[in-house]
Specification:
The structure is a single chain. This protein has helices at about 15-20, 30-45, 60-70, 85-95, 115, 140-150, 200-205, 215-225, 235-245, 250-270, 295-305, 330-350, and strands spanning about 5, 50-55, 75-80, 100-105, 125-130, 130, 135, 155-160, 180, 195-200, 285-290, 305-310, 310, 320-325. The chain is of the alpha/beta class. It folds into 2 domains: about 5-10 and about 250-350, Aspartate Aminotransferase, domain 1; about 15-245, Type I PLP-dependent aspartate aminotransferase-like (Major domain) (Aspartate Aminotransferase, domain 2, 3-Layer(aba) Sandwich), CATH 3.40.640. The strands form 4 sheets. A 7-stranded mixed β-sheet has the order 2-10-9-8-5-3-4, sandwiched between helices. The protein has a 3-stranded antiparallel β-sheet with strand order 11-14-13, with helices on one face. Strands 1-12 form a two-stranded parallel sheet. Strand 6 (about 130) and strand 7 (about 135) form a beta hairpin. Helix 1 (about 15-20) packs antiparallel against helix 9 (about 235-245), helix 2 crosses helix 9 (about 235-245) and helix 11 packs across helix 12 (about 330-350). The longest helix has 21 residues, at about 250-270. It starts with a strand and ends with a helix. The relative contact order is 0.18. Bound molecules: pyridoxal-5'-phosphate. Pyridoxal-5'-phosphate binds near residues 59, 60, 86, 132 and 161.
């Protein structure tokens, strides 16, 4: 078995594996409805919202697109700080939905400041909480508050794909109206489900849009424990099983994930590697490649030891590498990965 050190998909939680080994449920049965409602209930707890969470069959990007399309109308103005590949994607999704996008560009690795988004005249602000492409974490509550101060009617949409179950989140508590996430990151499940969390305010402002992506239609079905179309019900079972296990011990889980990511940074910095992000997300550790070392050599040194890692995206392609323990790893396995990291670099940077 490979050590998946990639920031999604990740090493699966045993509860997910157990749920996936069960016989197929038909989605229009009482048992499936009960499971679907349980997953929705647990996801509401995970997002800390009094609103609703909708499960969509697709990846995290589908959830981002559904969020944008159902909360904004073509021609509306949205502010989109761009500080990595996923915030870039948020801007592209908004453009493709016909919105007027005002981009705020930052060097990859940097994070936007609250004063940057305190600008009037916008219907929305779109932010990525944990920018997986650079390893940066933004101060979502402070940014949402600054934007809302300038645009009291404006809506804040957030990508929480690699903050859900990795860093404390609270939808309304953060001043966020809607958030997107997915099954294959902090939830330690296979890829295939996207989630859209909607605050009570966002629910009252939903605009029916599209067909498969129409969240108003999904909401009517999902309140009854069904979905408009055939859901990936097996994955719904995996998500419910993992949340049922993790949520009662969420604080300890978040502390473990933060410690593990800190350990990766400790090892990397000990090897003389320079971290990429200005503010570190607990989801992933990103380092610049040492001078003259191609990404392929680092990837190969890990692969030789059975580990899969990730490279850079966009302008960071060929300049960085990324490691993540957001999958199911316990404390001792993390020490094993730390040892593997040091050993891999002994191939790359032989002691002089
Ligand atoms: C993984 C990820 C996504 C979604 O990517 P998909 O491949 O569509 O699941 C979105 N945002 C962030 C920050 C991510 O890490």
């Amino acid at each position: 078995m490979d050590w998946l050190l990639t920031p999604g998909p990740v090493r699966l939680h045993p509860k997910a594996l157990g749920a996936l080994a069960r016989p197929q449920l038909h989605h229009r049965t009482e048992a499936a409805r009960a499971l679907f409602l349980k997953a929705r209930h647990l996801l509401k707890e995970a997002f800390r919202t009094e609103g609703e969470v909708l499960l969509l069959t697709g990846s995290g990007t589908l959830a981002m697109e559904a969020l944008v399309q159902n909360l904004f109308a073509p021609g509306e103005r949205v502010l989109v700080p761009v500080y990595g590949k996923f915030s870039e994607r948020f801007a592209e999704i908004a453009e493709s939905a016909g919105l007027q996008v005002e981009r705020l560009d930052y060097p990859y690795g940097a994070v936007p400041r609250p004063e940057d988004v305190a600008r009037r005249g916008f219907e929305g602000l779109l932010l990525v909480h944990s920018e997986t492409s650079t390893g940066a974490l933004v101060d979502l509550p402070a940014l949402a508050q600054a934007f809302r101060g300038a645009n009291p009617e404006g809506l804040v949409g957030a990508d929480m794909v690699t903050s859900l179950l990795l860093k404390e989140v609270a939808l309304e508590g953060f001043g966020v109206d809607a958030a997107a996430s997915g099954s294959q990151k902090g939830l330690m499940c296979p890829p295939g489900l996207g989630f859209v969390a909607l605050s009570p305010r966002a629910l009252s402002l939903l605009r029916p849009r599209g067909y498969y992506l129409d969240l108003s239609r999904e909401l009517r079905a999902q309140r009854e424990g069904e979905s408009a179309w055939t859901p990936a019900i097996n994955l719904v079972g995996a998500v419910a099983a993992v949340l049922e296990e993790v949520l009662p011990n969420l604080e300890a889980h978040l502390a473990l994930k933060a410690w593990q990511n800190g350990l990766l940074y400790e090892v990397g910095e000990g090897l003389g590697l320079r971290p990429v992000p200005e503010v570190r997300s607990p989801a992933v550790a990103a380092f610049y490649l040492p001078e003259g070392v191609p990404y392929g050599a680092v990837k190969e040194a890990f692969a030789k030891r059975g580990a899969v890692i990730a490279g850079g995206q966009g302008p960071l392609k060929g300049r960085i590498f990324r490691l993540s323990l957001m999958g199911h790893y316990d404390r001792y396995e993390a020490f094993g990965v730390a040892a593997l990291f040091r050993e891999a670099f002994s191939d790359i940077l032989p002691a002089s």
